Amino acid sequence: MRDEAALLVADVYEAAGALRRLGERTAATEGLTQARWQVMSAVSEDALTAPQAARRLGVSRQNVRRVANDLVQLGLAAFAANPDHRGSPLLGLTESGRVALARVTARAEAAHRDLFGDIPEDEIRAARTSLRRLLAALDRHQGEPGAG
User: Fold this and answer.
1) Angstrom distance (rounded) from CA 82 to CA 91
2) Please, what is the average pLDDT of the chain?
3) Quick one: which of 58, 62, 16 has its CA closest to 142?
4) Which of 36, 60, 92, 135 is disulfide-compatible with 32, CB 3.0–4.6 A?
5) E-state strands within the chain
6) Phi, psi (5° rounding) for residue 48?
7) Measured on CA atoms in the order 65, 71, 109, 102, is the torsion positive or negative?
8) DSSP annotation of 74
């Protein structure tokens, strides 16, 4: 069991790296980075503050703020006043940002269809179920004393 678990962890890391590289290439087709694409996705339905977007993405507020500033400079997003907190403006997409996000998302969906085309849907679903169980166990482990 332990050897299989170690191999699974190695496979997950390898897959994550390969998927990140694919994400960077996909984002680049629209002149984006994967970080910009992720922030755009996070604020695509509702405008969010940098801390809210950071929590959603699991990254630092400072990182989101830097990417948000880049998106604003590129005309893909805009800051708006936040009635609940004057010091933390809301970030939302501009029309150009919505178009760019739709285009990169469509490219990603096509890549996913190609990547997963030979894998039966029930196997994909089973893999997702196993990964969700692993993530839940990791969440529980994080709350234990001495856990890193």
Assistant:
1) 9
2) 92
3) 58
4) 36
5) 77-80, 90-93
6) -130, 160
7) positive
8) T
Q: How far apart (Å, rounded) are the C-alpha atoms in residues 57 and 74? A: 21
- What is the rounded distance in angstroms from the CA atom of residue 26 to the CA atom of residue 105? 9
What the chain holds in terms of domains, given with CATH numbers, is 2-142 (1.10.10.10)
DSSP annotation of 82 reads -
Question: Could you read off the pLDDT of 58-89 as tens digits, one per residue?
Answer: 899 999 999 999 999 999 999 999 988 888 89
pTM reported for the whole predicted model: 0.80
Residue 144 per-residue DSSP state: S
Residue type, 147: A
Amino acid making up residue 74: L
Distance, CA of 135 to CA of 131 (rounded, Å):
6
The tokens for 93 are 């997409």
Q: What are phi and psi of 82, to 5 degrees?
A: -105, 110
